Amino acid sequence: MEDARFNLPPGFFFSPTDEELVLHFLYCKTSLIPCHPNIIPDLDSRLHPWELNGKALLSGNQYYFFTKVNENRTTENGCWKEIGVTEPIFSTFDKKVGTKKYLVFHIGEAPHVTETSWVMQEYNICSSGFGTASCRSSRRRKHDQSLSQWVLCRVYEKMRSEGVNCYSDDDESGSELSWLDEVYLSLDDDLDEIGMPN
Q: What keywords is this UniProt entry annotated with (predicted)?
């Protein structure tokens, strides 16, 4: 379902850091007082990655959406599988405020599944990173319960040049080597292995 409020105006590029995603978006999602315009939509995490277009917030080649925590990440034709990589997210004051898990989309039914190039980064909030003296009220206890109900997801498709086991999103330029460039680079590697005679 296309919704214009999830599209960024011309000239704007949504490129938050991990810390900003946790502190300014995920934390605000769970708080009782909204802090930002609702530009990131709520979606079902059991969507196929190619179904996110027109539903999630798109910026560059990355999709952003909130979803409820759900251990069952099975879709109609596949599933999101964790790869066992979880990274801590720290604030500028070196306080742990969240974690980031990596998942990869697989097509098929177990045990016959095929890994795709679609990667999901799932951001979870760490409630201990927000502890203050004023956080002991019943309102805060309700808030702590809601912290574990929501996650923020960033989904993107890996480029072929990133390799099979590379899930880093550091290079977000969207540039991809052509097949001809890849052939030339592989020839260079072969020449290096052979070595030149002295």
A: DNA-binding, Nucleus, Transcription, Transcription regulation
